[in-house]
Amino acid sequence: MEAATGAKNALEMGTQTRTIAAEVPAAVAKHSAHVAQMYKHGGDWAKITYEDMGTASREIALGLLDLGIQPRDRVAILSHTRPEWTWANFGTVTAGATSVSIYQTNSPEECRYVLEHSESVAVFAEDEEQLAKIRAVREHLPALRHVIAFEPGSDSDGVITLEELRERGRGRDEAEWQQAAEAVKPEDPCQFIYTSGTTGPPKGCVITHGNYAAMRDMVLGQGAVEEQDAVYLYLPLAHSFALLIQFLVLDVGGTIAYWQKDPTKIVPDLQEVRPHYFPSVPRIFEKIYTLATSNAPDAEQLEKAVALGVKVREMQQRGEEIPAELQEPFDQAEEALYKNVRAIFGGRVRQGVSGAAPIAKEVLEFFYACGIPIFEGYGMTETSTAATAQTLDSFRFGSVGRILEPMEAKIAEDGELLLRGPNIFEGYYKNEEATREALEDGWLHTGDLAHIDEDGFVFITGRKKDIIITAGGKNITPANLENGLKQNRYISQAVVLGDRKPYLVALITLDPDEVPGFAEQHGLAPEEVPESEQMRAEVQKVMDEVNAQVGRVEQVKKFKILPEDLSQATGELTPTMKVKRNVVAEKFADTVESFYSS
After folding, report:
1. N or C: which end of the chain has fewer CB within 10 A?
2. Closest CA to 367 of 393, 341, 386
3. 561 close to 531: Cβ distance less than 8 angstroms
4. Stretch (H or E) spanning 283
5. pTM, two decimal places
């Protein structure tokens, strides 16, 4: 009942505009005195009001117009998640231009691809590090006319500083901003977001203002974000998930607290910001799970505490009275475990959402038992971020939730999930063939295999292109095995391979944060850990546990612990930490082949 009320309140207090461009000035006017943004500065959290954020966005929009930026021109942003990213994004779309996202971790050549393919006429670059990438490839970018720097550094030749751009904006009539924003139509492109490219070159998804406005309304109807909520944003704003969160928070007058670009600061940040809502990716929740369970004295006791917590909280959610024989041990577990885990998140997280990749059911059950509902959702850049959602009064572990209304879903004959609705993207920029493959009669072919149960909950069972077909003809989804392996605190990544081979094998990487502790415990140097018998025994133990849960043909027979973790810098991961399976298979082809020749 509470979730339904929250959804109703969120819709009533929102700006409910037909475009994101119109939403920005409307939200600034409505929530002017509220805190819009927080960022760490000099050891403290600096705060920016909606009025000040609106001023920055307006001056940037008018500055872009003063540079000659035209409606539908593409303006790119190459930066870490920070307040200026949001200002540049809001300034771009309210000026009538189209914002193009570039991951801050991209190489110069990857930046070139996006800028060249999108024909961006301007780019916002964060600092000297990002400017260097632009300089390295600028001669190949004839359409690029302006480079604007948040922090220009010592070499600012040919670069416009953000302050200079804002000063140009101050010289124009403020009324132009509202006029430019109101001139934007729902069918106009709002964002170009380039897919991560797990199976080839990135494709530029064209997402309109109408797509995002529809998506915003659909998610607000679920009550995830409420009035003046604080949201901790670790996700890169170049990703569609983070962009949607930004638009949701804007609509309800909430506060975005931006992370500090340092993974070790995430937990301290959570404890200081004390967010109400925490969207992230599985890897972050898995790391916090490892932290929370690392000192558990007894695995059996922990398992019992999780089972008890889930049972009692489900009863509470249904409004049932808790019998004394459950309440007493629940209260004991509350003092010994649950409240300490909630404290890691700051103590007031109402809900978290995990997206971008699968997450193990065991992790979700653990946090739910501790009073932190973290729900797995599903969506794609092509759905303007989301397609399913779960709420406190309607969820199912192992599922990604129900289809967001008014979307439609169906399962094709081959098991593929198809989606249709007002949030489905327009197509891929300059790629009609790929657009035709993705969209057929208005239905988006997701590429994901799924089934929908009798209550409407969607279960993703695999990726069509990731299905392994063994030499014996058995179809196997590797993600299930990989998720099981990654529950071990020491395992960072697990890549299961074996297409057209007689059995499955796995490449394992270790969590760099956990290796030093293991090394000290076993009297090893950290660099010795991957090849050590002690670590091999640890991995074999979890491998045996995972194998015991599946049939013989689905078991992993051999594995290799790699000396280094996978990363985007070395090409094996996307910016959202998805494994590029084909890249890994090719890079370690000799290792994989040795499994079968020995």
Report:
1. C
2. 341
3. yes
4. helix 282-293
5. 0.82
